[in-house]
């Protein structure tokens, strides 16, 4: 599509084009007037948007809208002030430009995971992991790993899992005494129950959490699914690897403050926790660097509880501001009718 990318938005830019709706609700200001509060995005990034018209119906979350807006700044952060909005019609936009996607094809990432499972010599772990993948089903191909934080993209759960798997394989030569297949199994299954925790459309847009996600969360549901996979595989109830894998699922957040009722109590569980944390934080920081100019600090990233600095890396090429054809027409497009 011939429009400027969200990552290239600058203060005072006038924009007209198509954006995906991540969040949308009508709110009341301090004086009682109604306004529309939205998070709009394309595949390069997202931005909060306000429409100061309380008569407009909030657009459907996960849908595509056409907006006429201007980029403003509020409390040091860019924001869209929307002047006009309508639902987009089929054929008007290219969805691949709007949806944040994992950088690798879902089929390739899944194959990397299943090849690892196929090579396992521990048949108990192999049965458990295959069972968990079967319980995840086809939704694994497009599910994100989170609603707002790391790997919040189409196929983000596969992206997170396959990246962690590669990291685990690189760590093992340093600690060869670890049970490699137990670590691989923990990596593959640790977040699979996010499919039961969140509601996602096939574009990878999470609009809410499920009832069981809110009441139980993916750690508790993950433990029950490991037990279900063991039952379906006819494994003995006292099989230790079932218990070990359950513990890895429930302890991978590390401590109670972050949702784990038990800390990791054996080495592979501890390693899973740190690999998960490293991959999540590197993904978040990479996203921050992509939208922060070299030599500048980002806004405060609440999930990291800090601002992030983009160093002047030697040899780094500056990110393009926008598709070359988009900028010259941006002002002209703004003058057109929605």
Which secondary structure elements does this structure contain, and how are they paired or packed?
Elements: E1 14-28, E2 34-42, E3 45-51, E4 64-74, E5 77-87, H1 95-98, H2 106-118, H3 123-136, H4 156-171, H5 180-189, H6 194-197, E6 198-200, E7 206-209, H7 211-215, H8 217-232, H9 240-251, H10 267-290, H11 326-334
Parallel strand pairs: 3-5
Antiparallel strand pairs: 1-2, 1-4, 2-3, 4-5, 6-7
Helix pairs in contact: 2-4, 3-5, 3-8, 4-5, 4-10, 5-9, 5-10, 8-9, 9-10
Structural description of this entry:
This protein is an alpha+beta fold and 338 residues long. It has 2 domains: 98 residues, Nucleic acid-binding proteins (OB fold (Dihydrolipoamide Acetyltransferase, E2P), Beta Barrel), CATH 2.40.50; 181 residues, no CATH class. Helix content is 38%, strand content 18%. The chain contains 11 helices and 7 strands. The strands form 2 sheets. A 5-stranded mixed beta barrel has the order 1-2-3-5-4. Strands 6-7 form a two-stranded antiparallel ribbon. Helix 4 packs across helix 10. The radius of gyration is 22 Å and the shape is globular. The two termini are 16 Å apart. The C terminus is likely disordered.
Rg calc:
22 Å
Count of distinct structural domains: 2
Based on DSSP secondary structure assignment, what is the total number of beta strands?
A: 7
Helix content: 25-40%
Strand order, main sheet: write it out: 1-2-3-5-4
Measured between the Cα atoms of the first and last residue, the distance is: 16 Å
Low-confidence stretches: 320-338
Order of helices and strands: EEEEEHHHHHHEEHHHHH
* Class inferred from helices and paired strands: alpha+beta
Counting DSSP H or I runs of 4 or more residues, the number of helices is 11
Shape descriptor reads: globular
Mean pLDDT: 88
What proportion of the residues form beta strands (DSSP E)? 15-25%
Biggest sheet record? 5 strands, mixed, barrel
